[in-house]
Amino acid sequence: MAHYTSMGAVPPKRHTQHRDSAGNLYYEELMGEEGFSSDSSLLYHRRIPSEISAAEVWQVPDQTLTPNHPLKPLHLKLRDLFPDGGPGVDAVTGRRLILGNSDVRISYVVAESASPFYRNAIGDELVYIERGSAQVDTVFGAFEVGRGDYVVIPRATTHRWLPKPPGDDADHEPLRAYCIEAASHITSPKSYRSRFGQLLEHSPYCERDLRLPEGPLLAEDIGADAGDETQVYVKHRGPGPGGIAGTIYTHPFHVLDVVGWDGCLYPYVFNISDFEPITGRVHQPPPAHQVFECWNVVVCNFVPRKVDYHPLAIPVPYYHSNVDSDEVMFYVDGDYEARKGSGIGIGSVSLHPGGHAHGPQPGAMERSLGAEYFDETAVMVDTFKPLELGEGALACDDGRYLLSWHTTNSVPEP
Ligand SMILES: [Fe+2]
Predict the structure, then answer these.
(1) Residue 320 alpha carbon to ligand 1 centre in Å
(2) How far is the CA of 40 from the centre of ligand 1 (A)?
(3) CA angle centred on 259, ends 13 and 127, rounded to 5°
(4) Sequential DSSP letters for 15-81
(5) Which is higher by pLDDT, 342 or 50?
(6) N or C: which terminus of the chain has fewer CB atoms within 10 Å of its end residue's CB?
(7) What residues does the ion ligand 1 have nearby, CB within 5 Å?
(8) Exposed/middle/buried for 409, CB within 10 Å: 0-12, 13-18, 19+?
(9) Cα of 322 to ligand 1 centre, how many Å?
(10) How far is CA 386 from CA 100, 287, 331, 371, 389, in A?
(11) How far does residue 209's CA lie from ligand 1's centre (Å)?
(12) How far is the CA of 24 from the centre of ligand 1 (A)?
C-alpha cells in the first residue's frame, strides 16, 4: 500500500519532539515491514506502546489440520457451522478453521458479540464480510464495514470487531466473516501497479476505491469502556498445532491511544462491488479476476458481469487442471451458473485440489449457451501448496461433492 496518508497530529519533521498541550512528549512508534526496507508508518502514542503488566496464554481456536486424503474435491456448507447465528460469539476467538497450509489459513465466523482487542503477529489478514455489519476499531482509526467489504489489516495492527445487532443491518443478518489469514503481506497484484506503487489504468480498481480509517481514534472518544487497562490477544508463532499460539498482553492503559500517524502502511477497506470486471469475446481466465495476492496465494473475485460475446462462446469455464494449485471458491451472492446441480449455494465453499481436473457440472455448459450476463459473486483463493482441512471443514463437508460430475442417472452413495 504505497499510498501516503497522514491523519491526526503529527510533527512537521519525523523523529522530532511532538508534545500535547500540557507539554508532555508523545511516543513515536515505527510500524514497518521487512525490517526497515518496505512500507511503514509512524504512530504517535500517549503511552509507551511497549508497556505491559502481564502476559498469559491464550488458547487460540483449534488450528489442527488434517490432510485431504484420499484426495477429494469438497463442498463445505459453512452456514451449518453456526446454525443459531452468532449470539455469544465474537469475530476473533469464535473463528472456525476451514482450510490451511503454511502460507494461509481460512476460517469462518458468525459473530454478534464484541471481540477483544486482537493483533495477528503472523501475517496480514483479509476479512471478507459476507453479510452483516460491524465497526472495526484500530490504532489507525475506525471503519464501518458491511456486506461485500474486504477489510485488509496489516500484521501486528491492534484492532477489535464490534458487530452491529442483526436488527440494525439492512439484510437483518449477523456479521458473517470469511477470514483469510496469511503468513505474509497481502497486497494488490504487482501486475496492477507501477514500479512506484500506483495502481495502473488496466487495474480493475484504483486508489479512489479504497476506504481509509476514520481517525485516529483516541481512547476518550470511544465511550464508557475507555478504562485504564486493556488486554490484547496476540496470535503468533508458537508451540500449538500448525505452529500457532496465542498470548494475552495486559496494558495498563487503553491501547487506542494514537493521536496521529502517517505513512504507507495502514488498514483499508475495498468493496467487491467496486471491482470492475474484465470481459472478453471468449472466456477470461481467473487472473483477469485477481484482486489481491500474498506469498504463494492469490485472491480473485467473480462479480456480476456481461459474459463472453463471441457468437459461438461457451460462457461457463472450460474444464481445467490447476496442476500447481488448490482452488477454494466461496459463493456469496447470486446464482453460480457453473455449479448448478452440485448442491452449492450461498455460503458454500468448494475445494478443487490440484490433481483433479474440474469444471462445470453436467448440463451447465449447454445451459449457458447464449447467456449474456452472470449474476454471481464469489471469492476465490488459490494456493500453491496443498490445503489441509481444519475442524470446521470436517464438520460441514457435504460428503458427496466428488460425485457431482457423475453423468448417469443413478449416482452411487459415497
Ligand atoms: Fe476452477
Answers:
(1) 6
(2) 36
(3) 110
(4) TS--B-TTSPBPEEEEEESTTTTS-EEEEEESS-TT--SEEEEE-PSP---B---S---EEEEGGGG
(5) 50
(6) C
(7) 327
(8) exposed
(9) 7
(10) 8, 20, 21, 34, 10
(11) 27
(12) 58
Looking at residue 371, its amino acid is: A
Using one digit for the tens of pLDDT, what is the confidence trace for 274-325? 999 999 999 988 899 999 999 999 999 999 999 999 999 998 989 999 889 9
Residue spans of beta strands (DSSP E) within 132-283 = 134-138, 141-145, 149-153, 159-163, 175-182, 210-211, 230-237, 244-251, 258-263, 268-271
User: What length is written for the chain?
Assistant: 414
Backbone angles phi, psi at 393, to 5 degrees: -65, -45
User: What's the rounded Cα separation, in Å, for the pair 349 and 205?
Assistant: 25
Measured in angstroms, how far is the CA atom of residue 342 from the centroid of ligand 1?
14
- Whole-number Å distance, alpha carbon 351 to ligand 1 midpoint, is 9
Residue 379 pLDDT grade (very low, low, confident, very high; cuts 50, 70, 90): very high
Q: Please, which pLDDT band fits residue 223 given cuts at 50, 70 and 90?
A: very low
The alpha helices in 261-384, defined as continuous H runs, are: 364-368
Q: Encode 35-44: b = buried (16+ Cβ within 10 Å), e = exposed.
A: eeeebbbbbb
Q: Are 274 and 288 in contact (CB under 8 A)?
A: no
3-state secondary structure of 196: coil
**CA-derived radius of gyration, the chain:** 22
Q: Which three cell numbers stand for residue 68?
A: 485431504
| Cα angle 132, 75, 413; round to 5 | 140
pLDDT band with cut points at 50, 70 and 90 for residue 120: very high
Residue where the block lists cell 485477481 = 290
CA–centroid distance, residue 310 to ligand 1 (Å):
21
Distance CA 27, CA 24 (A): 10
Whole-number Å distance, alpha carbon 7 to ligand 1 midpoint, is 42
What pTM value is reported for the model? 0.95
